[in-house]
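Researcher: Next entry in the queue.
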Amino acid sequence: MLPVSDGWPATPGRVNHYFFYQTYFKDFMNRLIVLTAALLVAMNTFAQKRIVSLNGAVTEIVVALGFEKNIVGVDVTSTYPASMQQVAKVGHNRNISAEPVLALNPDLILGTDNFLQPAVIEQFKTVGVKTQIFKQEFSIEGTKKLITEVAAALLVPAKGVALVKQLEKEQAALKIKPTGKKVLFIYARGAGTMLVAGAGTPTEKMITLAGAQNAANSFNDFKPLTPEALVTANPDIILMFDDGLKSMGGVDGLLKVQGVQQTTAGKEKKVVVMDGALLTGFGPRVISAVKELAGKLNS
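Model: Structure for this entry, 299 residues:
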């Protein structure tokens, strides 16, 4: 009888050791490797059980990925979902300081580079808290990228893929007809604080996605509102955050601002309001925001 590869004769009562290794032991090791990897992912996810989010869009993504209960602190722009009203607030993301964030004993801090100060980010890292800072791009593709990156930071890339696919499905169903309407976004906190959104702002991006055009495109970012700027822009529609218009005393209060009644929008009392987090967040609800704005602009 010929010997087998392990050196033992293949008798009916003897097990082929090589075959045993190939069939059973190797399979066992593969299963052990998979199980170990799964346990490591679970341990890492569990280690990030206390999350502080310093951006409204990031907060929405974290919730959509299934980590709502892990959020222990947010910035004041994180207003959605409603449960975030019960979470500790650490300030506005434009002027966050490290102390209130670190006081929450977070395992993971998430934010975007367009608002947080580099010195504050460095403080987070210096004390050893895992910190992920993302670059936010105000576009639908930018939202997809942000979802993917947040999901990776939370070690749930598959959930990120699913959320992006849902967004793409909504995007494919979106039907927007371009119009020639000029829209002027005014940021207001009472009559004493009124700014106009120029080119490159999130509101301009949203106005364009909704099929209209920004009435103030001769400058970048935001500028103080002046009667001359209003007359020059002469918008067909004035767009505001709902709480911004409320701070003005409603439409009647807005019409008292010098220059407003000289515009087409003022003469026709055409003022559109939206929730600020929805309008400018560019989070998972971005397609809903475009649809809502387009509907209001064309009503």
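Model: The chain has two domains: 51-172, 182-297.
Researcher: Noted, moving on.
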